[in-house]
Amino acid sequence: MWPTCAWESVLEGYLIFTCLTPDILHQLHKGIFYNHLVQWCVSIVSEKEVDACFQAMTQYPALCHFKKGISLVSQWTGTEHKEMQRVFGLLASAVEDCILMVACLLLDFIYYAQLQQHMDTTLAVMEESLKTFHDYKHVLVELEVHKDFNMPKIHSMQHYISLIHALGKCLLGLEESHVVPLEDGFMDADTKVHYKVAKTPPHHQVSVDSIECGYGAFKFIPKIYALPNIAAHGHKNKTPARFDTMFILEEDHTHTDNMWLAQVCIIFKLPEYLRTYPHLLVYIEWFTALQHQDPMSSLYIAWCGKEISRDWTLANVLEKATSFYVNSYIDLDMFLALQ
Fold first, then answer.
1. What secondary structure letter does DSSP report for 309?
2. If residue 153 lies in a helix (H) or strand (E), which one and from where to where?
3. Is 176 helix (H, G, I), strand (E, B) or coil?
4. CB contact at 8 A, 308 and 49
5. Are 109 and 154 in contact (CB under 8 A)?
6. Per-residue pLDDT tens digits for 271-285
7. 3-state secondary structure of 53
8. Residue 264 CA from chain centroid, whole number
9. pLDDT tens across 39-83, in order?
10. pTM for this predicted structure
11. Residues 106, 33: contact at Cβ < 8 Å?
12. Computed over its alpha carbons, how large is the radius of gyration of the chain?
C-alpha cells in the first residue's frame, strides 16, 4: 500500500486555478468563436446567407476558401476555426450593426490574446473589448439568440488579463505549444527587447524554392496573381479569372494614412528597346483611399454600400461589387497595422 500524502498541507495557501494559463484553442477558437459566436450569427441570418458570404470571399495568399460555405462541413479542427476568423468580418454585410459590433469585439479580444508579447496598451484594449461586449450582449437576449451568458467560456475571458500579467502569454492550444516556456510574455511599456543576430549567415545564395521547401517557409514570398479566364480544354476544367488585390504603402511611411488599396490587372515586362526598369511592372486599378471606417466594426471601407448579391462568386465579386470592407482580421500583422 502506497503511503498517503496530505496534499492539503503541501498546497496550503496555493490557488491551483491561478497556475492554469488561458488556452486559446479550446477556450477562444473552439469555444467562444465557433461554439458560440458562429452559432449565434447562423441562427440570426440563416445558414444560406452565411454560406453566401463565405462563397463570395475574394482570394488571399494561404487563405482557405470555403467554396461551398460552412454549413456542409461536418468536422472542424482548430485550423478551420482560425481560417473562419480571418474572414468572419465579412458578415458586416449580412447582420445588423449591433450584432456586427458584438462579433467584432469578440474577434478583437481573440486576436489580441494571440500576441506573443503584450504591453499595458494591448492589455488595456483587450479589457476594453471585453467590457464593451458585456455592454452590448443584451441584443442577443432581445433577439432570443441566447437566454443568458452564465457560461464557463465567457467567464474565463475575464481572467485573461490578470493571468497574462502573472504568467506571461497565453497558450496557443497547439500540442507543441504546451511545452513552450511562457517567460517574457508581458512587458512594461518602457521595456526594451534585445535580439541577437548572427553577423555572418551560415548559408549563402539560397534559392527561394529551397527556402520554401527546405525550411518550411511556404509564405516566404506571397504570390500575386493576374490571370484571365482559361477555358476548359480536354480533361482540364475551366479556370476562373483571378486578379488579386494589394496594399501599396508610400515610401518612408508606415501609417494607414499613406496606405492605398489596388487591384492588379496585368503583370508585365517591357521589351528590350523600351526597358528602363530592371524588374517586372504591374498595371493596377485604384480603390478609394482608406479614409472611412465603419462605426460598428471599425473596418475600413473602400467605396460605400451594404449588400450581398447571390450572383457574386469568387471569380466575379471584385468586378460586380461596388463597395468593399478592408479585412483587418486576415492576419495578426494586418490586424495591428489597421488599428
1. -
2. helix 152-156
3. helix
4. yes
5. no
6. 888 777 778 888 888
7. helix
8. 23
9. 888 888 888 888 888 887 777 777 888 888 888 887 888 888 888
10. 0.71
11. yes
12. 24
Say how far apart CA 106 and CA 98 lie, in whole Å.
Answer: 13
Across-strand partners of 226?
Answer: 243
How far is CA 281 from its chain centroid? 30
Helix (H) or strand (E) holding 306: none
Q: What is the pLDDT of residue 234?
A: 80
Amino acid identity, position 64: C
Residue 132 has what pLDDT? 93
pLDDT-derived band at 178 (thresholds 50, 70, 90) equals: very low
Render pLDDT for 250-267 as a digit per residue (tens, 0 to 9).
766 555 566 778 888 888
- What's the one-letter identity of residue 48? K
CB atoms closer than 10 angstroms to residue 57? 19
CB atoms inside a 10 Å sphere around CB 109: 21
The span from the first CA to the last CA of the chain, in angstroms, equals 61
Q: Compute φ and ψ for 194, nearest 5 degrees.
A: -115, 135
Q: In which band, very low, low, confident or very high, does the pLDDT at 13 lie, cut at 50, 70 and 90?
A: low
Distance, in Å, from the CA atom of 110 to the CA atom of 182, rounded to the nearest integer, reads 18
- Taking 60 as the threshold, does the pLDDT of residue 190 lie above it? no
Residue type, 101: M
Total Cβ atoms within 10 A of residue 297? 23
Q: State the cell numbers at 143.
A: 433577439
Ramachandran assignment for 69, one of left (phi > 0), alpha (psi -120 to 50 degrees), beta (any other):
left
Query: pLDDT at residue 111 above 70?
Result: yes
Q: What is the chain's percent helix, strand, coil content, to nearest 5?
A: 40, 10, 45
Phi, psi of 129 (to 5 degrees): -60, -45
Is-contact 241 315, C-beta < 8 A? yes
CA distance 270 to 108: 45
Q: Which three cell numbers stand for residue 129?
A: 473589448
Q: Which three cell numbers stand for residue 85?
A: 476568423
Pairing mode of beta strands 292-293, 300-302:
antiparallel
Question: For the residues of 79-128, what is the DSSP string, one character each?
Answer: HHHHHHHHHGGGGGGTS-HHHHHHHHHHHHHHHHHT-SSB-HHHHHHHHH
Q: What angle is formed at CA 127 by the lines to CA 328 and CA 32, rounded to 5 degrees?
A: 65
